[in-house]
């Protein structure tokens, strides 16, 4: 999901999504909430906080008990910010449609936080963070980890969809479905070949691609139970839906930070004040995120 239009569409369709932050059973992952609750102090009555790429406000909701005197969410999507205002009525919002963060605004805050967000603005936005912070302020972020747990899951999902695209699964399915009306014998033969080709690739299918494969099997094997127009509409609708999911999943893979991105971010003038470590979840072997922090000391500018 590279573009602002994609994000707007996403937030329009999923106004309260916390999709990245759920277990396979749909429950939210408490480790993230614990992370924020442990890393944000309690004496924040006099402090201000800004959440970069805040989405619908998952982060403010996870540390809603902290008494900040000013909370601001920044995002590129108007729809996300509308959801944030609904979910966190005492928060203000900033619409930011570029990869450049508004330095003059960021300088006002004691805490700058981000959860799977700032990496969408690019490595330079993170690297430049120290120059946009006031003395004594803190930056804390959880960012996508290349080759980590979330990344691996989405990479597999992406590859499943790519396998469908490579074999022209949608175009072929539409051609075959059209034969139902014109040449039922040819339909039977082609549908059988098509389904057995899909079966040879069974180890590729997961998530969206698996739903398609299961759905088309059901439709092609029991086509007499369905209206022809419904079969065509289902295939076209699925293709469109998978195109959107593909862009979103690809963007997550693209923005995930590699070890060399992290080196780039933390090298240079401010290298001493960066803190970085992999963030792990209970029962997961691979890291789910980079835990990335910067404390702007009073003497950072003189370093
Ligand atoms: C994966 S979501 C995370 C949302 C939120 N932090 C959360 O924890 O639910 C990434 C967010 O980045 C936002 N985003 C992408 N590009 C952006 C940009 N250039 N400026 C600001 N926000 C951006 C999207 O609109 C989206 O809300």
From TrEMBL:
Domain spans labelled Methyltransferase: 49-129
Residue stretches in coiled coil: none
Pfam families to which the protein is assigned, alphabetical: Methyltransf_25 (PF13649)
Highest taxon above the source species: Bacteria
Protein known as: Methyltransferase domain-containing protein
SUPFAM superfamilies in alphabetical order: S-adenosyl-L-methionine-dependent methyltransferases (SSF53335)
